[in-house]
Amino acid sequence: MATVAGAAGEAGYFNVRTNKEYAERIDRLRIFAVLGIMIFHLPPLVTYQTDPDRALPVFSSDWILFLKIASQTLIPGMMVLTMITGLLIFGAQPAPPYGKSVRKWTQRLFVPFLIWTVPFSLLVAVLQSFGLGKEYGHQLGDFELWPLIDSVFGITTFPVNVPMYFTRSMFVLLLLSPVIWWVVRRTGPLLFLIFAALKIGQVQVPVLYSWSICAGFALGAYLVLQPEWLDHFEQHGGKYLAAALGLLMVSALIRFMHYGQNVRIATITADIADFFMLPGTWWLGRYFAYPRLAALFKRLNPYNFALFAAHVPLIHIYWNLFEAWFGSSANPAYTVFFFLHPVLLVVSILYLSKFAEWLSPTLWGYAVGGRTRNELNVRKERAVQTG
């Protein structure tokens, strides 16, 4: 079992990169979280309050309905990614010059954000001009400027490429990271607790949409200051995971029994469980070091950002094909689709990524924020040389 003893950085703060086991675990947890997000987005979504103008998704059996609800309730994602980012960013002390960091964040987050949202929004606009693509939540067929801007940046609702709101929000948080670090150093866990209360209280703020991102980031900063909590997670994470899964199962059952209704207690229960899931997921990550799992995560690692950014456009393509051939989720064939779809997405994105990198290495490098296979190999060589 890894510990944080002796892992303080130059400024006396915990640098997770100095702990080889934790550094490798973080790479695997990133992939695990992204795969969870992909499963969450498998259509049709069922955990949100139903649009009164749209019919509820119908499934061939109650078992499939419950499985679909559970898949959108039990899987961790966004908050795990932001906690990891906080650990990495705030652990790199002394921090590099702010201007240098902004250029790096722009390259790794904002430029890819534009590449994965602008073309997709324009494609949806073209489709809607021909009467297609009405399910995207934005009406872009008239090519009006404000709806197009909103579909890219997600100002009044999520962007057309939904997961990219996380990339946008993460970029803003990184720009604010000096302020967040200053506050956390002076108030300890207070900022995390405030964000947690706002999440559980379901306080809505335009543009942000999720306090989970802020809470995870603030927790990562606090763990840099108090890394003994990671030892606590190592020792007791299994209990946290069991508690989280228990609460999330209760939430899933409530949503199942009140399908189509926005039951507040189910959402609050799930939000509380998410915070138990953070130490639980960290603890679970130790088992990703098993040889076969480690080999799988190592293979997926160069494509992690592509899996995150490209899965929603591909989901829409495969779902439209399914509806054309089988009608809807009420068809028994949906059970096969549900289990095969994540595998199909991963395999498709891996091969499309390899093709895109071969076709235009430079453009692909911009699209994934420099996270190409060659760049990752260079970083590993540098780590070996400096280690």
UniProtKB/TrEMBL annotation:
Chief site of localization: membrane
Domain Acyltransferase: from-to ranges: 25-349
UniProt key word Cell membrane: yes
This protein's UniProt keywords: Acyltransferase, Cell membrane, Membrane, Transferase, Transmembrane, Transmembrane helix
Highest taxon, organism lineage: Bacteria
Example of a GO biological process term: enterobacterial common antigen biosynthetic process
UniProt xrefs under InterPro entries: Acyl_transf_3_dom
Protein's cellular compartments: Cell membrane
Pfam assignment, any one: Acyl_transf_3
Ranges that cross the membrane: 29-49, 69-90, 110-130, 165-184, 205-225, 237-256, 303-321, 333-353
GO terms for MF: O-acetyltransferase activity
Topology relative to the membrane: Multi-pass membrane protein
Any single GO CC term annotated in Swiss-Prot or TrEMBL for this entry: plasma membrane
Family named by the database record: Belongs to the acyltransferase 3 family.
PANTHER family membership: O-ACETYLTRANSFERASE WECH (PTHR40074)
Protein name: Acyltransferase
Taxonomic lineage: Bacteria, Pseudomonadati, Pseudomonadota, Alphaproteobacteria, Kordiimonadales
